[in-house]
Amino acid sequence: MPMELLVRLRQAHLPLNIEDTEDIQKCEVLFAAKLIDAAIPVFHPEGSTPYLGPATVTSVTPNGMAASEVRTRMPDGSANFYPRRSPSARSRFGRHAVDAPSETREKSLLPN
């Protein structure tokens, strides 16, 4: 899972060369999400390895640090853990506060 690699990268001495194919693919995902800064090698399906060299991770971005911090606080085995709002926050926003983002998203897709 890319987030597990992100946690490992946060604790590693950077820059770090990544040679494992699966970890390079995870680096591609983390780089695309702007959670790490890295040099990703060119993908080539022909040949003995799918990449033309290792990925070099130079840093974990501030967003990557924040995401890995959330990941480290997650209970073991919970892939879909999200911090819950406190009851006082729910009462301030009303009982439909949880539905607000999806309603807003749906309204934004409607023509004016």
Q: Label the structural class.
A: alpha+beta
The total strand number stands at: 3
Order of helices and strands: HEHEEHHH
How helical, in percent, are the residues? 40-55%
Multimerization state:
single chain
Strand proportion: 5-15%
> What value does the average pLDDT take?
79
Strand count, sense and barrel status of the largest sheet are: 3 strands, antiparallel
Shape: elongated
Strand order of the largest sheet: 1-3-2
Straight-line N-to-C gap? 41 Å
Rounded to an integer in angstroms, the radius of gyration calculated over CA atoms is: 19 Å
**What count of helical segments does DSSP give?**
5
Provide the low-confidence segments as ranges.
Answer: 102-109
Q: Topology of this structure?
A:
Blueprint: H1 2-11, E1 16-18, H2 21-32, E2 36-39, E3 55-60, H3 62-73, H4 87-93, H5 100-109
Antiparallel strand pairs: 1-3, 2-3
Give a concise summary.
By secondary structure, the protein is an alpha+beta fold. The chain is built from 5 helices and 3 strands, in the order αβαββααα. The relative contact order is 0.15.
